[in-house]
Design a protein that fits this description.
Distance between the termini: 93 Å
Oligomer: single chain
Helix content: 40-55%
Mean pLDDT: 93
Low-confidence stretches: none
């Protein structure tokens, strides 16, 4: 009886898993000589360095500096630039004055233009914006430079749009789509974004119809390191993570491709989204997308990329991109089922299969799915209980998050090895029946409800071949079984990491269950191992090791700083002030002003909006300071045809960054702010009574016109916020320690005033 070379085949499995990740990204070599006509990551990095020196959100001093830098760099390339300015509120009721930077390269023909898009504003108030989206701007600047150096004239015009106020509500893109004459020329958009500071950049399409033409054209452009799949595309469409490209699709019916990286998510929108932390391989990946696509689409017919049909698609090593139409989904499912039935009949005839052992084979399947599913589901809640500081990382992905992914992957493997160690006396063929049934049920469900994931069935065909081999051979070649397991590793292994990275550690359950399901697909090989008990022990030992590593890195350091928050909140009507924080576990810096006393409930629920609906966690009495209040002038209050029309103007008397207006529970029939009419959809679906958020530039006023039913009494609550708590002369707030940063996604380092206006 031939022994299975366990160590060698395990090494091959590990190598295949490693390779499934390795081929996702190009490798950056610092100082490498790159010819002028090619994209240079080093040259792009110089742009990132200049753009990310200071926070440059709308209304911040460095915002203009960054805009001027981008304009100057485009002009150095010999391009004529223009500036598009205007107020817009987008679809989210976030008003700001956007200032877009534009340039255009003329083509030799009069077809549709290719638009290159990224945004230059960083997120308020402390983000340096190196990745989001300094990396995108740098990619475009360097890519256009390299393209122009080829001295070739493209067939299509190339429009460069470096948009503004994306972080506030896609306002710059909204301004371009609504107001700019060039919109009618645009046939396709390439948008470069970031939601972290590393990892592979995923291609995500935006289309109002089918994706088949877009994906076939993307494959034809032949980027070297494509990372894209129709499952991520389907999930992306379900999530509220819009980009500038969304505006082009929704309001302009223009297709496009997003290129966005999401790893090291803990840096997103923070002070540590800086030049040093941007992954160089990731920036190189963005360039590896832009150059071939820029060359291809600047010369291709992009006048009609619309189609009614959808394609399943996914990337895989060696083949790059694989794609096939949705119409193949059900036939592929039916063929797999028929093949399985034929193998069952053959197995029973040859007495290799028997009903009793098949039923026994269901036990380890259910055991591993239940144990790993339960552990994965409750893991994040358990970790937050064990390490309360994690609650203050609002991203939901901790600095040691990768260690947790490794740990729970290993735990799942340990559970699987242990379960099948207990059922080692059952013939392999019988053990393969239950896993196939589980997988075919999954494939059937996605074929109906989540067709973008229909490529899940591809590794199942390899599994069926392995099932056939086990039915017909007593001692199959172990290297053949490794080969048949490679499709499962190449296709599924990256998802084990992608789900918790992209959606937070609450998705560790996806890691544990997907690891279990991949293990099932490798059972034709694994069942031949004699030392499954030892492998289970080794897996649990490594799980403990990674958990220990995560524990040792669970604290906050200079490289892993703690998010902190502090606000001074002045209620003008009550003439009372409070310190407030969003921290669940106040830092020593915050504790100088905040005691662990529950937050004022009314203040917490009614105060200024935040990305994740976060409320104040703790408040404390604060001394009254002479903070200048805004001037509120009611210029009109009249009734016409049972409709009450109100017109008021709010003028700040101090440098502020943000003004928000909330209403009581009334029906707003019409609203106009600074000449911008708010959409009927927004007015009917506004959350928590928020009417408008105005991000202020240069102490601008806010002019509001409202119409409400005459029988409803209107009350406005006005919040005025400045992000100058640490620099304002009225206060003496010390700087944070080096192991602390401002908490993102919430109003922070702010002086906030609250004032009500009633119209009785």
């Amino acid at each position: 009886m031939r022994k299975t070379p366990t160590v060698l085949t395990l090494l091959l499995v590990i190598l295949a898993t490693y390779w499934s990740f390795r081929v996702l990204l190009p490798q950056y070599n610092e100082g490498e000589t790159v010819v002028d006509t090619e994209f240079s990551t080093d040259r792009a990095l110089q742009h990132v360095k200049e753009i990310s020196k200071e926070p440059h959100g709308v209304g911040f001093p460095a915002h203009k500096t960054v805009r001027n830098y981008i304009t100057a760099e485009l002009q150095k390339l010999g391009l004529e630039t223009s500036l598009q300015e205007g107020y817009t509120a987008g679809d989210w009721g976030n008003l700001s004055k956007a200032e877009n930077v534009l340039a255009r390269i003329k083509g030799s023909e009069s077809g549709k233009a290719l638009l290159l898009l990224s945004h230059y504003d960083s997120n308020p108030h402390s983000s340096l914006g190196a990745s989001d989206a300094g990396s995108g701007v740098a990619t475009i600047l360097e890519g256009v430079r390299a393209f122009l150096k080829t001295n070739t004239t493209p067939k299509n015009d190339i429009i460069i749009l470096i948009s503004d106020a994306e972080e506030l509500g896609l306002n710059g893109a909204d301004l371009f789509v609504d107001k700019h004459e060039w919109l009618k020329d645009v046939g396709l958009v390439l948008n470069f974004e970031a939601r972290g500071s590393g990892g592979p950049s995923y291609m995500l399409m935006e289309t109002n119809r089918g994706n088949s033409k877009l994906i076939s054209e993307f494959i034809a452009a032949n980027p070297e390191f494509p990372v894209a799949n129709s499952l991520a595309y389907s999930i992306y469409k379900m999530l509220p993570n819009d980009t500038d490209l969304t505006v082009f699709r929704e309001d302009g019916d223009i297709e496009g491709y997003n290129f966005a990286f999401i790893d090291d998510h803990f840096d997103y929108h923070t002070q540590i989204d800086n030049y040093e932390r941007l992954d160089r391989n990731t920036l190189a990946h963005q360039g590896s997308y832009l150059m071939p696509l820029l060359t291809y689409f600047s010369n291709a017919d992009i006048s009609n990329l619309k189609s009614l049909d959808d394609n399943v698609y996914f990337n895989v090593p060696f083949f790059k991109m694989v794609s096939y139409p949705f119409s193949w989904i059900m036939p592929m499912l039916v063929i797999a089922i028929l093949f399985f039935i034929l193998l069952l009949i053959s197995g029973f005839r040859k007495k290799v299969l028997n009903g009793k052992d098949i039923l026994k084979g269901l036990i380890p399947v259910l055991f591993t799915l239940i144990v790993n599913g339960v552990v994965g589901y409750f893991s994040w809640q358990f970790l937050k209980w064990l390490y309360p500081g994690y609650k203050d990382i609002l991203h939901g992905f901790t600095y040691n998050g990768h260690a947790y992914i490794f740990a729970f992957t290993l735990f799942s493997l340990g559970t699987c090895f242990y379960a099948y160690y207990k059922f080692k006396v059952i013939k392999t063929a019988n053990l393969l029946v239950a896993p196939f049934i589980i997988w075919i049920i999954i494939c059937g469900l996605v074929a109906v409800y989540l067709q973008g994931a229909a490529f899940f069935i591809i590794p199942l065909y390899s599994f069926l071949v392995a099932f056939y081999v086990h039915i017909n051979q007593k001692n199959p070649n172990p290297f053949l079984l490794v080969f048949l397991g490679i499709p499962a590793l190449f296709i599924f292994a990256p998802f084990v990491k992608m789900f918790p990275v992209g959606l937070g550690l609450k998705m560790l359950v996806a890691t544990t269950l997907l690891t279990t399901l991949i293990f099932f697909l490798l059972l034709p090989l694994v069942t031949k191992y004699r030392k499954k008990g030892a492998l289970a022990f080794l897996s649990f030992l490594l799980f403990a090791g990674f958990m220990a590593s995560a524990h040792m890195n669970s604290g906050f350091t200079n490289d892993r700083p703690k998010p902190t928050s502090l606000l001074y909140v002045l209620d003008i009507d009550e003439n009372k002030a409070k310190w407030a924080t969003y921290e669940h576990r106040p830092s020593d810096w915050t504790s100088q002003y905040i005691t662990k006393k529950a937050a004022d409930t009314l203040l917490s629920k009614k105060t200024i909006s935040s990305k994740y609906g976060s409320n104040f966690t703790f408040t404390n009495e604060a001394p009254l300071k002479n903070v200048p209040k805004p001037t509120i002038e009611v210029q009109l209050d009249t009734i016409v045809n049972n409709i009450r029309a109100v017109h008021l103007c709010i003028t700040p008397n101090r440098p502020i960054n943000r003004l928000e207006v909330f209403t009581n529970d009334v029906d707003i029939l019409k609203a106009d702010v600074n000449g911008i009419e708010l959409s009927e959809y927004f007015l009917k679906n506004r959350y928590g009574g928020r009417l408008i958020t105005h991000y202020i530039s240069d102490k601008n006023y806010t002019d509001i016109m409202l119409e409400v039913p005459v029988e409803q009494e209107l009350e406005l609550t006005i919040y005025e916020a400045s992000n100058d708590l640490l620099t304002n002369g009225l206060f003496t707030i010390p700087k944070r320690k080096e192991n602390q940063i401002p908490m993102p996604f919430v109003l922070n380092d702010a002086i906030l005033t609250i004032q009500k206006v009633k119209f009785e």
